[in-house]
Every structure is written in C-alpha cells, then in structure tokens.
Amino acid sequence: MAAKIAYDEVEVGTELPAQSFPVTRATLVRYAGASGDFNPIHWNEKFAVEVGLPDVIAHGMFTMAAAIRVVTDWAGDPAAVVEYGVRFTKPVVVPNDETGALIEVSAKVAAKLDDRRVRVDLTAVSAGQKVLGMSRAVVTLA
Amino acid sequence: MALDQSFVGRTYPPTAPYEVGREKIREFAEAVGDANPAYVDREAAKALGHPDVIAPPTFVFAITFKASGQVVEDPQLGLDYSRVVHGDQKFAYTRPVRAGDRLSVTSTIEAIKSMAGNDILDIRGEVRDESGEHVVTAWTKLVSRAPEEA
Questions:
Q1: pLDDT tens digit sequence for B95-132
Q2: Which stretches make up the FAS1-like dehydratase domain (chain B) (predicted)?
Q3: What is the CATH T-level fold of the domain B5-21+57-144, as seen in this structure?
C-alpha cells in the first residue's frame, strides 16, 4: 500500500476534496452490464412505478462505488481503504432526460485510529436528500 | 411471514472459484467513471506495490451477491425476493481484489430479524483466494418489505 497522504498531516475535521457524480439512464445501463445487476427498477420506468418507486432509481452499489472515489482519489492507492460501509437511506431517482441526477459527495476525517489509520465519514446527497447513511471508511495512510 | 430463526448461523458451501479478469475490472471501473490508473495499468498498480491491476473497492460485491443467491433462493428459508431491497453494505479488506484472483465465497446467515412486518436478513460473505487466504469479508443486509395492506 502506498497512500500519498501522511497520517501525521491530517487531523479530525480535515476535509477531503468533494466531488459530484452525474448519473443518467445510460450510466445505469452501463453499470448494470458491468456489475451483473439487471434488476429492472434500474432501467425500466414502468416496472419501477409498478413496485411503488417514483421513477427509475440508481443501483445503491453504484452510489457506494461513486462515493468512495472521494477517498480513493485522496489517498491515491485504492488499497488504502481497509473498511467501507454504508446504509442505503434514500434512492437516487434518475429521470429519463439528458441531465439525469447528481450525487454530491463530501467527506472528512472523523477519527484518528491506531496503526496510521483514520476513519473518514462520507456524506452523499442527491436532489437535496441524503442517499447514504452511516457511510464510513477506514483508511491506512502513509 | 417471519423467517425461521433456526437459519441463523447457517453456513452454505463455498462457491466455485470466480476468476477475476483484467478486462472485467476495466469494464467495472469505466462503468463507475473511475479513472484511477491502478485499475487498468499494471505498471501503475506495481508502482503502488501491487503485483497486478487491482479492482475498485466495491467490485467484489458482484461476486458476493451472486454467492448470496444460495441464501436468498434457499426454498427452505422462503424469502420473498421480489420484495427485497438492499439495506446496508459493508466490506473489510485484508488485501484488494486483483486480476488473476480465483475467489471463492462462503456465505453465512448472521442474523434474521422481523421489524414492522419486514424481514431483515444479514448475510456475511467470506471471500478467499485459491490458496485459502482471506481477501475480503462482505456484510449485506437485505430487507424484505412487508406486503401492503389489502
């Protein structure tokens, strides 16, 4: 592992560079193919509405994958992430237009642990609502 | 209908090995729009100390979720999968998944709860490589929503 951020240089409260991730229907079709998750709630509006959703929603695992990029881009080596967990609290609703949805992710160091590890807490918001809860990563720094 | 508590602690047989392909990692990284060179460029991965390209942290879910099919499709358990949503997901890594890995998953039912008519199922998937070394553990919480009142 070769994280580019030094443990000694971060403090509780250190903010990681925030990022925004656009999601369109095309993004979801592509993610479905790459991940093997072909649940129609992620691409078929009629089906999504029938099961009580407002529209097609993003794969929770897509949101989880996007959010951790704030941490892996910061740490440099993705293998610096030794633990990562989320709760899927609200769906990311993806309308069938050019814009789609936007997932805005921010993160900060919440605790300094032993063995040069830190806990990073993430916040992911789409359309003004938190879409992930209890979103935490443990990261080994240099 | 509440699920049978006696299934808590049940462990299913390890899955047949899944071979992690370099191009599958690339496809996944591109699908999540992640341009980190460690996922696609062997030299970049080596510069970070990895023997080959590594997979993004959540890549392994495709493997563990497929393995959890043994549990959710177990006719004796009787989960109504059409009403299942993904509640929580967590991973703990011993090392990153990398190209060439042959990974096998052992799934265990950690907990079964019933809350407000919803069935909540916690599944732990232990992912090991061909030599039996631990790679990552995935915890998946599935919630089977109660049927709407008629």
A1: 999 999 999 999 999 999 998 889 999 999 999 999 99
A2: 6-137
A3: Thiol Ester Dehydrase; Chain A (3.10.129)
